[in-house]
C-alpha cells in the first residue's frame, strides 16, 4: 500500500470508500426501493448521467470496429455504471450501425443491472414489419420496455 493511505480493517465500508475514491468510482448504496429494479436505486437520486465511449487505440488507428465499451458517470465525473456491447465480428464489420447487439450495463461491483437487446432487422420503409426494435430489461430477464422505429409517409 502506498505511503499515506490508511485502510480501516474493522470497517469494510471505509475500505470500499477509500478504494472508490482512488479509482474515481461511486460506491452506489443498495437500500432496496420498492418498485425500483435492483441495482438501479441510485438513478432515483440523480438528474444527469454522462456516457463516455471508451475508444481502443487499435480501433482508432486501424478502423477495425470492436465491441463498444462505455463509462456511465454522474455529474461529478464518478463512474456509476459500465456498459459493454456484445456481438460478433462479422456483424460489426458487415452491418455497421444496423448490426444486432446486446449491451450489458454493469454496476461498479460487476453485477448486470440492465440488458439492452437489438436483433438484426432490415431497415427499409418498404418492409415496415422489419424495422428496428430495442428491448430493455431491468433486471435482465424482466422486460421494462421495447422501442420501435416508426415510418412516416413521405409528403411531396
Automatic annotation (TrEMBL):
Highest taxon, organism lineage: Eukaryota
Regions annotated as coiled coil: none
Keywords: Calcium, Lipoprotein, Palmitate
GO function terms (MF aspect): phospholipid scramblase activity
GO cellular component terms attached to this protein's record: plasma membrane
Cofactor(s), names only, from the UniProt record: Ca(2+)
Pfam families: Scramblase
Family statement drawn from the similarity comment of this UniProt entry: Belongs to the phospholipid scramblase family.
Protein purpose: May mediate accelerated ATP-independent bidirectional transbilayer migration of phospholipids upon binding calcium ions that results in a loss of phospholipid asymmetry in the plasma membrane.
Protein name: Phospholipid scramblase
Annotated organism of origin: Collichthys lucidus (Big head croaker)
Organismal lineage: Eukaryota, Metazoa, Chordata, Craniata, Vertebrata
Amino acid at each position: 500500500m502506498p505511503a499515506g493511505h490508511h485502510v480501516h480493517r474493522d470497517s469494510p465500508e471505509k475500505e470500499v470508500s477509500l478504494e472508490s475514491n482512488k479509482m474515481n468510482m461511486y460506491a452506489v448504496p443498495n437500500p432496496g426501493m420498492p418498485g425500483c429494479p435492483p441495482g438501479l436505486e441510485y438513478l432515483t437520486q440523480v438528474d444527469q448521467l454522462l456516457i463516455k465511449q471508451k475508444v481502443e487505440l487499435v480501433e482508432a488507428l486501424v478502423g477495425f470496429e470492436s465491441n463498444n465499451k462505455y463509462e456511465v458517470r454522474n455529474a461529478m465525473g464518478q463512474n456509476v455504471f459500465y456498459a459493454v456491447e456484445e456481438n460478433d465480428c462479422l456483424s460489426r464489420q458487415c452491418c455497421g450501425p444496423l448490426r444486432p447487439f446486446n449491451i450489458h450495463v454493469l454496476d461498479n461491483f460487476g453485477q448486470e443491472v440492465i440488458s439492452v437487446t437489438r436483433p438484426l432487422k432490415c431497415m427499409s420503409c418498404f418492409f415496415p414489419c422489419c424495422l428496428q426494435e430495442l428491448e430493455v430489461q431491468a433486471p435482465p430477464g424482466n422486460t421494462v420496455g421495447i422501442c420501435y422505429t416508426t415510418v412516416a409517409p413521405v409528403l411531396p
